[in-house]
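Hi V.,

You were right to ask for the full record rather than a summary. Here it is.
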Amino acid sequence: MAAHANALLLAGGLGTRLRPITETVPKCLVPVAGKPMLDYWLDALEAAGISRALLNTHHLRDVVLNWLEQANSSRNLQLIEAWEPALLGSAGTIAANRDWADDVDQVVVIYADNLSDMDLGDLLAFHRAHGDPVTMALFHTPYPEKCGIATLDADNLVVDFVEKPDAPASDLANAGIYVLDRAAWREIADMGAFDFGFDVLPKFIGRMRGYRHPGYHRDIGTHESLAQAEIDVADLFGGAA
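Predicted structure:
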């Protein structure tokens, strides 16, 4: 039987660096070329054949729920809300939704405030071919001291990972996209941890592979980055749909 995957879209962040935009628009729905950030990820999920996604909500929940209702009526996937009255952290969201992996082989975890042309189907194929419980997507960054940096061996095994290192060992940065096997999802849920980068990923060194994304990847976290994304998006996606 073919392997199946669910997704988790982490979308509850406050987006403080994007104020005043994020005082009325959730960071996950900030438009790039007129299209909300989350819609780019739904396109990628549909292209990869993923049909169910959990979406955590917190800031401006009502706005996100209105978008979610429209997406569910027009998309070939099912979006389910995971409401967080207080933000739980990326690992805490998994702990609060321990059963989300029960009926699938993998869960793709996505930090939804990035703009990326990553092929999630290719990422899943890479994960299913290597046999380790976790895959971390990586991209080449010009600012490694500001990112979580991975060191890989010849077989793409992650042999070191340091969050925002003073002396980066490489330029391969954590893209905020992971594939977790069902057992890894449950292991993380049982950790009682808060943050992926600091609390979870170090525990998978030596049993996690790095997927090198060859394309575009940008955190839409500042006004400068958002402005650059507006310029870039026509080349990436042919303009917004």
